[in-house]
Amino acid sequence: MAAAVREDGARGRGRGRRGCEHYDRGCLLKAQQTCEECSTLFGEYYCNICHLFDKDKKQYHCENCGICRIGPKEDFFHCLKCNLCLAMNLQGKHKCIENVSRQNCPICLEDIHTSRVVAHVLPCGHLLHRGYRCPLCMHSALDMTRYWRQLDDEVAQTPMPSEYQNMTVDILCNDCNGRSTVQFHILGMKCKICESYNTAQAGGRRVSLDQQ
């Protein structure tokens, strides 16, 4: 016979039972790590603030975040301006944005502050779970230098049709915010200032070099 399941999720006797016999019987128990009647361990980790029971994952409770985090605690610090626990190697080396974690990931739309998925801190200061470009400010999320050099080779090996070979376009770089006028290419237009291909046409019309 299958084990009876209570509305609160506790199972009866048998395989997969949670808690202890006192919990199964619905005894009034104080929220704590062990049963005060039989000393059964309810969880390797217990937070008496969040009342969270879990396996030992080096968790710790952050008072500023207001929730438990997966540690170990010594590997993280709480940034008061960002209002988020960050890895120690980011202390003093990240761009702060006030309450940046109190929003949803702009890609997957999951709440960043309470998510168990690691959020990446971008050079622009925004957070997201995955992606190569921040969808909020369009800055590159990673060091793209190697990819830009590969794109240099592809551009060099891909000549444009004759009607486009002498065309220029005004661009805005999403990485350095610089503006420049460059030769148009279908694979990408390289910023003259920082050499990034993370650019967008800035509204200027394409002009033939022969007409300048």
UniProtKB/TrEMBL annotation:
It is found in: Nucleus. Its main location: nucleus. InterPro entries: RCHY1_zinc-ribbon (IPR039512), Znf_CTCHY (IPR017921), Znf_CTCHY_sf (IPR037275), Znf_RING/FYVE/PHD (IPR013083). One of its GO terms (biological process) is ubiquitin-dependent protein catabolic process. Keywords: Metal-binding, Nucleus, Ubl conjugation pathway, Zinc, Zinc-finger. GO terms for molecular function: ubiquitin protein ligase activity; zinc ion binding. The keyword Zinc-finger applies. Residues 42-104 form the CTCHY-type domain. GO terms for cellular component: nucleus. PROSITE patterns: ZF_CTCHY. Pathway: Protein modification; protein ubiquitination. Pfam families: zinc_ribbon_6. The keyword Nucleus applies. SUPFAM superfamilies: RING/U-box, Zinc hairpin stack. This is RING finger and CHY zinc finger domain-containing protein 1 isoform X5. It comes from Carlito syrichta (Philippine tarsier).
